[in-house]
Amino acid sequence: MAVHTGVLSSGFISLAPDAGSGLAVRAALIVVLLAAASGAWWVASRRAARFRPHNDHVLPGRAPAQADTMTSSDLSRELGARGTFVQFSSATCATCPQVRRVLTELTAAQPGVVHVELQSEDHMDLVRRFSVFRTPTVLLLHPDGAIHSRTSGPLTPPRALAALAQLSLATPRSINV
Prior knowledge:
Elements: H1 2-14, H2 22-48, E1 52-53, H3 72-75, E2 83-89, H4 96-109, E3 113-119, H5 124-129, E4 137-141, E5 147-152, H6 157-170
Parallel strand pairs: 2-3
Antiparallel strand pairs: 1-5, 2-4, 4-5
C-alpha cells in the first residue's frame, strides 16, 4: 500500500503550482477536457434532433424488439392512412408541449397523418417494448403500423416534414390506371 500512496502523492506534487511547467500542463488539460465535452455535446445534440431508422436503436447485447409494429389497439386510436406519429411524453417533460404543438400543427395540415400522444407512466408496456429511455420520444409509423423511424428531444417542423416525406417515399403506393 505504501507504493501506491507514494505514486499518488508524487502525482499531486507534480500538479502543485511551484512544479515549474505545472500551470501549462493544467491549462492544456482543461482545454482538452473542454474540447472533449464540447464534441460529446455536439454529437448528442445532432443525434437527438434527427429521425433515424428504428433498427439503429438496438442496444449492443440486446435482441431487437420482438414486435416492430403498433396496432390501433395499442394506441386506442386508428392509424393514419399516410402515417402516424406516436409521441411518448411524461408529466415532468419540459420539451413535450413544444413537440406536441409541432406534431398537432403538422397533422392538421397533412391529410392522412395522425398524431397520438401517450403518457409514458400509463403505457409502461409500450415503453419497455420500444426501448423508450427519454421523453419526448416520437415513433413514426407506416400506415400498417410498422415503425419507420424514431427521434427524441426537441422537434422542429422541417425535421418532422422531412421524416414524413421519407416515409411517403418508402411506402409503396398503388397506382390506379
